[in-house]
Amino acid sequence: MTTLAPLTATAPGSPSRWALHDSLIVARRYLTHFRQQPARLVGNLLFPIVMVIMFGYVFGSAITLPDGGNYREFLMPGLFVMTMALGMAQTVISVTTDTAKGITDRFRTIPMSGAAVVTGRSLADLAASVLELIALLACGLLVGWRANGTVWQTLAAIGLLLLLRYALAWVGIYLGLALPSPDLASVALAPIYPLTMISNVFVLPTQMPAWLGVIAEWNPLSATVTATRELFGNPGITTSTSWAAENATLLAIGWPLILIAVFLPLAARRYRYLAA
Amino acid sequence: MTAMISATDLRKTYGKKRALDGFTLSVDEGTVCGLLGPNGAGKTTAVRILATLLKADSGNASIAGHDLTTDAGRVRAAIGFTGQFSAVDEILTGRQNLDMFARLYHLDRRQARQRTDELLDRFALHDAADRPAGGYSGGMRRRLDLAVSLILAPRVLFLDEPTTGLDPRTRAEVWTDIRELVSAGTTVLLTTQYLDEADHLADQIAVIDSGTIIARGTPRELKESIGGDRIELALRDEEQTKAAAHIVAASTGTQPGIDLHRRRVSAPAPERFHNLSTTMRQLHEAGIDPEDIALRQPTLDDVFLKLTDRKEKTA
Fold first, then answer.
1. DSSP string, B196-250
2. Dihedral sign from CA coordinates of A255, A260, A261, A263
């Protein structure tokens, strides 16, 4: 049996220099998961596709829009946003699992950039959500949804969706690091479903009881839904005159930026002080 | 010899519980130190602090000459850490795991590939290299985990209960791996609940209880510290047991313990083989043919029970 020649780690004193390199290696790890187990990606996609069928065809048959627009065209931007939001569950579960299995500890004993572990995770989430979004857009086209705006408007709408997903990735990373065990992930994620329902994803807030409508309008997800409906030129642009409804695009940019500003430093701090 | 691991007066409290309470330890280069202690004694806390995973509330420590608090980056470049669970990515293949961690150790693409191949060879994982690690047996996963710890051929290796949950054959394989690493100059700090594991692997043993080291020495020294070797006899009837006890008392000059019911006699043997041969000759002359006679060292279990028991009584 051979003995191993000693190797020295390059420049252990300057981890920040390696932040980007290490982030990409960590991100590649998660993307390799999809290549190793394509079923994971299919699993992520199945839920929104079931929603397209359930709401687009089952409930949708009974829902009429105030402006008489096609419900499935109304629904699709909502489902895009819902998929972005539910993606956070993936983040939380995978972060807690890494900690439970000792992989987070393994990363922490390596002379790599500390920021890379969380940044790499967020980049991988972003890349995975691009794939999910492409599949969901194709699914939308199949059921008759169309992007009626200009190419730039369509790209801007996709940008808003990815911005939301990226912001929620940071919320998810923070939650994942803060939770003491993966068993609690389902508890922490429970509010996600009401959060997607009490919004304008499926129904316009103006059709809800007034108090619920206000909550739905101020829901950060609603801002992205309204903004993308406008950019895609889909029906259901709200007739509400509330500030939140009228400034949806501003909020669709603002909400995620606020979430990133709060949760990125929190997640990075939490990772660094896992040692405490 | 220089100390590769050196810790002075480390303290760590969780709320009111003192996990480490003045932990001081020094491990020489190229040796294995076994850290033994009952559950909750502070073994894992100590190892996690030394491997930069936890911060001590107070105290100093250095690994391979690098200070733990001011130079954690250099400490990390000098250590390998294998925790209680095999910390490998179960979806990635063995090869992908090694390659990823090698890149995170900042080896370039070519070096990483080369190192991965070396380690796969070294740990006999070549055949399984391209299968997901989740499908590996417990022993293979452990070997992959060890391989990851050895990417940089670290000078100091921390092993936190490395064979917990492994079958006896796999345990023996892991022991062989550890011994080979040490013969190549690696310093190892090993925690274990298995006393035979410490006995097999450790040059020095430190017994920890309630967050502080209560005894240390070579396995032999520790065993001698609680009374050294004993002659143990098993006889065929009560009559012979009584007669044998007299002979043992005369030949060793000590007071034997007698268990008439089980027909056993046991006595300290300060002069070891001399006591044994005298006893055997006299037994033969008296026409006593024992079922079994042996010179036995106290086991580490005896040491461990006595040490931690005494501690409980004084506490």
1. HHHHHH-SEEEEEETTEEEEEE-HHHHHHHTT--EEEEE-SSHHHHHHHHHHHHH
2. positive
State which residue of chain B sits closest to A13, comparing Cα positions: B73
The span from the CA of A12 to the CA of A112, in Å, is 8
CA distance A210 to A199: 13
Q: What pLDDT, in 10s, does the model give residues A191-234? A: 888 898 899 888 888 888 989 998 998 999 999 999 999 999 98
Question: Hey, which residues 90-119 in chain B have their CB within 8 Å of chain A?
Answer: 90-93, 96, 100-101, 103-107, 111, 115, 118-119
- Split at pLDDT 50, 70, 90, the class of B9 is very high
B220 interfacial to chain A (CB closer than 8 Å): no
Domains of chain B by range and CATH? 3-224 (3.40.50.300), 229-296 (3.30.70.100)
Q: What is this model's ipTM?
A: 0.87
Start-end of H helices in B51-129: 72-78, 94-104, 109-122
Residue of A6, A33, A108 with shortest CB distance to B53: A108
Let me know: does B153 contact A4? Beta carbons within 8 Å. yes
CA distance B242 to B238: 6
Please report, for chain A, the start and end positions of each structural domain, with discontinuous segments joined by +: 15-275
A11 pLDDT above the threshold of 80: no
CA of B51 vs chain A CAs: smallest distance (Å)? 7
Q: How far is CA A263 from CA A159, A223, A268, B91, in A?
A: 20, 19, 8, 28
**What span, in angstroms and rounded, lies between the C-alpha atoms of B302 and B82?**
28
Q: Which residues contact A81 (CB under 8 A, 6 or more apart)?
A: A161, A164, A196, A199, A201, A221, A224, A225, A228
